[in-house]
Design brief:
Strand order of the largest sheet: 8-7-16-17-18-15-19
Radius of gyration: 22 Å
Number of helices: 14
Bound molecules: flavin-adenine dinucleotide
Distance between the termini: 15 Å
Helix content: 25-40%
Number of strands: 20
Shape: globular
Length: 438
């Protein structure tokens, strides 16, 4: 079976690594960029390892990466963010983030009575008993519950930070999605970890798996420009080659890009319900410093302005040169209803808020900055997981392709959905082939 995978991001590489493990397959991963990784692309500058995205993994012991380690024999190291060094800033005061029992007892974001309430809520989520799962959205649950304002704010803030979204969007996430997500995360012994050496330590291994099978290859700088079907085969035209023939096609890219590729085909209609899906975007502000200017904590989340700074190098020492420090600032955006002029103003304002946070907790950073990278509208998830959006299934009725990516149905959020849908789509395709063979 000859397979084309379109997209060499985390989802496409995962699908290719599983599929190329089977002796009955051959194939090509088409990637339009000069490098693999997609939004998990990593590059080096002045000794710093910079990610287009970020490489925090939530609940790694219960994560799809854990399955992939066992099934594909991946080997990578990860390090847990020190929970005692994770703080929330509220009204200019710092307090431990209530991530576990010890921090809940120490935090000032909740009063004594609210701490008891919040611990009861966590127990209910772990026991799958929390009523949140019965509400259409977090917002609806918060409107109905008799919890205090601080407990409500904490729920909203948790969802902002784990889903990388604004408070307005957090209220639009389905109660069931949140209950499932935190059931998993609260049971994890390792809530937030970094993959040492960033995503490239995984993508390079996935690439190695694919290329170890000589019937498979990865074609870089080769965007697929059109697809048609002839006599039961898929005919692909890329930027540099014409009429490449395949038996199966997996589309491993954001649904918005799939819809564009198939715009002029008869399959276009099937994407109608997914065309208006909105992505979630953030502002990213990375700074590489020649010396460690200060290290009072490893992650600081500004609850008032909804932005955070990770001292990535405090956990992953591989990303900065010896003695240096890599800080990553991220701001959740909510600028959907603004005019172009207002959006510009809004983003400039976010940059100023971020720089103010750097000034407060990392004084002197400007003088020792070696590398600066800003991305004002980075797409974190191609489909924001809110009730008005719909995740793309791995297959659609009357459309002959398979799909995977972080905008597809799958386990977890962010990169985990890319990994899990890539893994599932490969298993689905292989099981179909086996059943045909018998
Ligand atoms: C700022 C930021 C922070 C993030 N932080 C985290 C985090 O801390 N933890 C986490 O788990 N996740 C995080 N993420 C999310 C994670 O990076 C993404 O979910 C994941 O990389 C998506 O992978 P994907 O394979 O689904 O899509 P993509 O990475 O978008 O891959 C799709 C690929 O398809 C290629 N392509 C598109 N069209 C064509 C075509 N016609 N022909 C050939 N190739 C094509 C693209 O070039 C791309 O390489 C973050 C993302 C960002 C941007």
């Amino acid at each position: 079976m000859k397979i084309a995978i379109i997209g060499g991001g985390l989802a496409g590489l995962t699908a290719a690594a599983y599929l190329s493990n089977s002796p009955d397959t051959e194939g090509t991963v088409f990637e339009r960029s000069p490098q693999i990784g997609g939004r998990a692309f990593t590059y080096e500058k002045s000794g710093f390892t910079l990610n287009f995205g970020a490489h925090a993994v939530y609940g790694i012991d219960r994560h799809t990466l854990h399955n992939m380690e066992n099934e594909l024999g991946l080997q990578f190291q990860s390090k847990q963010v020190d929970k005692r060094k994770v703080v929330y800033a509220k009204h200019e005061a710092l307090t431990p983030a209530p991530l576990d029992f010890v921090n809940i007892m120490k935090t000032d974001v909740l009063s004594k009575r609210e701490k008891v309430r919040f611990i009861t809520e966590i127990a209910a989520v772990i026991g799958h008993l929390h009523q949140l799962k019965n509400h259409r959205t977090l917002g609806e649950y918060l409107d109905h519950t008799n919890a205090s304002q601080d407990v409500k704010e904490l729920w909203e803030h948790l969802v902002c930070s784990n889903f990388f979204i604004s408070p307005e969007d957090a209220r639009q996430v389905s109660g069931e999605v949140i209950a499932d997500y935190y059931h998993n995360l609260f049971l994890s012994g390792r809530p937030v970890s970094y993959i040492l050496g960033s995503w490239s330590s995984i993508t390079n291994q996935l690439r190695g798996k694919v290329e170890a099978n000589e019937k498979w290859n990865i074609a870089l700088k080769e965007p697929v420009e059109s697809i048609r079907m002839e006599n039961g085969k898929y005919i692909l035209n890329t930027k540099s080659r014409e009429a490449l023939e395949f038996d199966r096609v997996v589309m491993a890219m954001p649904v918005q890009q799939i819809a564009k590729l198939l715009e002029t085909t008869s399959w276009n209609q099937a994407f109608e319900p997914y065309k208006n899906n909105t992505p979630n975007e953030v502002l990213v502000y990375d700074i590489g410093l020649s010396t460690v200017v200060s290290r009072p904590f490893h992650y600081i989340s500004d609850m008032d302005n909804k932005l955070f700074i990770s001292d990535v190098s405090a956990t992953d020492h591989t990303v900065a040169p010896s003695g240096g420090q890599l800080l990553q600032g991220i701001a959740y955006l909510n600028d959907d209803s603004l005019s172009e002029e207002e959006k510009k103003q809004y983003l400039d304002n976010k940059v100023q808020q971020m720089e103010k946070l750097f000034d407060t907790y990392y004084p002197g950073w400007r003088e020792v900055t070696e590398v600066k990278r800003m991305s004002k509208k980075a797409m974190v998830s191609s489909v924001k997981n809110i009730v008005t959006n719909r995740m793309l299934p791995l297959q659609l009725p009357d459309v002959p392709f398979f799909f995977c990516g972080d905008g597809c149905e799958g386990k977890g959020e962010l990169a985990e959905r890319a990994f899990s849908s890539g893994r599932s789509v490969a298993k689905l395709l292989l099981s179909r082939t086996e059943s045909l063979a018998h």
